[in-house]
């Protein structure tokens, strides 16, 4: 079971919007609009920043961002995994599923979630991000390292995510895709339906959806 992080495992768009604007403010730059943030949501952070803040000094942004991120994490303003989502992960693990994360985040943006004392410890077996993958979603090759290192075949995997790019990447890799619409940032009609295997309204519906995929169709 491969799980996207942002607005799938945890709802982060709103918090990320505040975080990035906080970084921009500390750099003396004007804030971006919510519409611009949503239009670039899901892109690699430094790739999105020239659109979010035209003319931004990317090196300076990359210097300031980690410290502000740590402040937000310490204050519980970002990357909070709800108890019901943890319960869903527990059901997957107890059902014999291997749970892995696949995100477009940079390594520094996800390493705290891999700490031994994090709530995901014991629930998630590994994570794939910019630090250990060569390609980014929606490129189907974003799954290359995951598949090579785990030995799983695409047919054995299911990816759950919240964006059309997630669906395109999974479909191109031959991996079944479950669209999670909980964040409300994306609508189902924005997805290429050829790549959507199932739909869930909230993350806690994931275990049942996965079980349904494994249930043989009645002739």
TrEMBL record:
Pfam families: HAD_2 (PF13419). It comes from the Bacteria. Coiled coil: none annotated. This is HAD hydrolase-like protein. It comes from Paractinoplanes pyxinae.
């Amino acid at each position: 079971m491969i799980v996207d992080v942002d607005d799938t495992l945890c709802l982060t768009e709103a918090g990320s919007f505040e975080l990035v604007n906080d970084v921009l403010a500390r750099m003396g730059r004007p804030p971006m609009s919510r519409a611009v943030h949503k239009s670039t949501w899901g892109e690699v952070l430094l790739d999105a920043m020239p659109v979010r803040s035209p003319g931004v000094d990317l090196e300076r942004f990359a210097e300031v961002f980690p410290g502000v991120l740590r402040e937000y994490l310490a204050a519980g303003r970002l990357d909070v995994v709800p108890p019901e989502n943890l319960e869903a992960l527990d059901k997957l693990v107890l059902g014999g599923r291997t749970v892995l994360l696949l995100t477009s985040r940079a390594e520094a943006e996800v390493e705290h979630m891999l700490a031994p004392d994090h709530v995901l410890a014991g629930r998630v077996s590994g994570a794939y991000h910019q630090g250990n993958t060569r390609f980014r979603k929606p490129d189907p090759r974003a799954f290359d390292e995951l598949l090579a290192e785990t030995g799983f075949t695409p047919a054995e995997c299911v990816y759950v995510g919240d964006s059309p790019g997630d669906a395109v990447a999974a479909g191109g890799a031959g991996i079944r895709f479950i669209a999670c619409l909980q964040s409300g940032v994306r609508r189902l009609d924005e997805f290429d339906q050829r790549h959507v295997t199932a739909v869930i309204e909230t993350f806690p519906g994931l275990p049942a959806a996965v079980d349904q995929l494994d249930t043989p169709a009645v002739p």
